[in-house]
Automatic annotation (TrEMBL):
InterPro entries: HAD-like_hydrolase_sf, HAD-like_sf, HAD-SF_hydro_IA, HAD_sf, PGP-like_dom2. The lineage of its organism: Bacteria, Bacillati, Actinomycetota, Actinomycetes, Kineosporiales. This is HAD superfamily hydrolase (TIGR01549 family). Gene3D superfamilies: HAD superfamily/HAD-like (3.40.50.1000), Putative phosphatase, domain 2 (1.10.150.240). GO terms for molecular function: hydrolase activity. It holds the Pfam family Hydrolase.
Length: 224
């Protein structure tokens, strides 16, 4: 599991960019994305006064829907984005924290690492979950979704903004996330990456772990 590479990254990291849905919580574990997407589509039909474009009709994920709306109904993006943000807060209030996430954040705090959450979800939902679970003090910055969906990861913009907020140098920064878009964004931003994966990757890629508790041990170990 790339132990040497992981240790090397942990030893040189001072700034952590952490994805939200996956590493920190299971955002849509209880309020599921298909339910949210269906309600957004209903709302959109109400606004349009008729059926939505067929390219959108079968979308079952709110962020994919947001992407589609930005292309087909750009004039409605602000309104749909606001509804997605509300739904994400509802989801965050019901979401469970990922096992090991708190231990990881505590290990970072203990080691003096500065942490930013970098999410394609709304910052409102991120803050709601952190506050509900007493985790806000571990996080120095929250970089949520820009109202322009083109700036979502894999675009590196949110990572670069978070690094500016943390005053982070790329050579001592790592992005930790569970999706290919996190890895692509890290590479575009010129920072190291660690993947959180439930099964071993099919192809070689960035070093990976299967549990947040592994990262808690890795980053909690005395660092030289
Ligand atoms: Mg994720």
């Amino acid at each position: 599991m790339d132990e040497a590479q992981l240790k090397q990254i942990a030893a040189t990291t001072q700034y952590v960019l952490l994805d939200f849905d996956g590493p920190v919580c299971d955002l849509f574990g209880n309020l599921t994305p298909d339910v949210i997407a269906a309600s957004l589509l209903d709302e959109l039909e109400g606004v349009l006064g008729g059926p939505v474009d067929e390219e959108l009709a079968d979308i079952d994920d709110p962020l994919d829907l947001l992407d589609g709306v930005s292309e087909i109904y750009p004039e409605l993006i602000g309104r749909v984005d606001a509804s997605v943000r509300d739904a994400e807060v509802d989801a965050a209030e019901l979401a469970e924290v990922t096992p090991g996430a708190e231990a990881f954040l505590a290990a970072c705090a203990e080691g003096g690492l500065r942490v930013a959450i970098v999410s394609n979800n709304g910052a409102e939902a991120v803050r709601a979950l952190l506050e509900m679970h007493g985790l806000a003090g571990f996080v120095q910055h929250v970089e949520g979704r820009d109202p322009d969906p083109r700036l979502m990861k894999p675009d590196p913009t949110p990572l670069l903004r978070a690094m500016t907020a943390l005053d982070a140098r790329p050579e001592s920064t790592v992005m930790i996330g569970d999706s290919p878009s996190d890895m692509l964004a890290a590479s575009a931003a010129g920072v190291a990456a660690i993947a959180l994966l439930s099964t071993p990757p099919a192809r070689s890629g960035p070093p990976w772990v299967s549990r947040m508790s592994e990262l808690a041990s890795l980053f909690g170990a005395p660092r030289t």
